[in-house]
């Protein structure tokens, strides 16, 4: 690897961080609700339970998790057994506490479907950082909840135009309320999962939106289920959210790239977003998850549009170590370093916060240290890039007004 630049090492491994995108942890009574293999893969079914444990990503995390759980010669199964036998409060502290992760503040998207029934509320997570947890509001879930309430009518007397008008008014009022809530620091769209990232910058017609609304309404009346995956209506919802975001200055995060098999992969590239980014120049866009495997496309957008930022999360621990370093290098190929944001995409399991933090810090150090060795960066520049990526860029973008807690880590003896 060559010489280690100690100031770069210190900045990457021990500077406090702001986790700019994460999700709640499972409540204790639901700690085994999902397969633990979801820690290392977005796959589903047998691809998750049978195949994911054979990835380099899984092999890599076994020694790290085993060390904290104090397991001699750990295996994936012994880790699952040990964590199940540990009191839940101890498990959460072991893997989530700020002295281990260095996370000072978490920004939580708490809009996953049904999350209020089986996960902890966002404020519960305050115990692990040194600054209060803040919320990211998922706009499609807000829209679905509003539509459910509007659809509780006699279907024979339904007036779709009136329903659409009522929805528009209520949705805008809800997001404006969130925009004025100091605990809410941004919004998020999952358009990538629902209809793809080729979001129309302007509506085709009200007729097309009403046609989608009719389909959603009829499905809800027949099944009692509502999931917005109708292009004209979904795009309409996203455009309203982008307009409010542009006025209030709170960013909109977009899931891009890496996800489960519900995503249409070739429509998950942020390159599809160029038209919508141009149409909303006052809105701040955050492209999540390194847009992997479309990282270069995301970096290009950050370089040419002043309102686009790139998060390099979720690849920890889903991608191999070599892959993580390659992705960070791709981010740095073109992306202005004042636009790089770090996150864990932590969710359900406390271990996800630990791995998302420690692996990101290791990969960031290895990449930046190598650039200094190659005389492509001054040591002081590498330090600044690391500190900004971990803390200051998110602090500025989300207007958090935090001071870095330099004593956050429990340093090794």
Which features characterize this protein?
TIM Barrel, eight-stranded parallel β-sheet, 413 residues, single chain, alpha/beta, 8 strands, 9% strand
Provide a descriptive summary of the structure in words:
With 413 residues, the chain is of the alpha/beta class. It has a single domain, classed as TIM Barrel (Alpha-Beta Barrel), CATH 3.20.20.140. It is 49% helix and 9% strand. It contains 18 helices and 8 strands. Strand 5, helix 13 and strand 6 form a beta-alpha-beta unit. The protein starts with 5 loop residues before the first helix and ends in a 16-residue tail after the last helix. The model has no long low-confidence stretch (mean pLDDT 96).
CATH class category label: Alpha Beta
Order of helix and strand elements from N to C terminus: HEHHHHHEHEHHEHHHEHEHEHHEHH
Radius of gyration: 22 Å
CATH topology: TIM Barrel
User: Shape, please?
Assistant: globular
Count of DSSP H/I helices: 18
Helix content: 40-55%
The CATH architecture category equals Alpha-Beta Barrel
SS-based class: alpha/beta
How many strands, which pairing sense, and closed or not: the largest β-sheet? 8 strands, parallel
Quantity of strands, as a count = 8
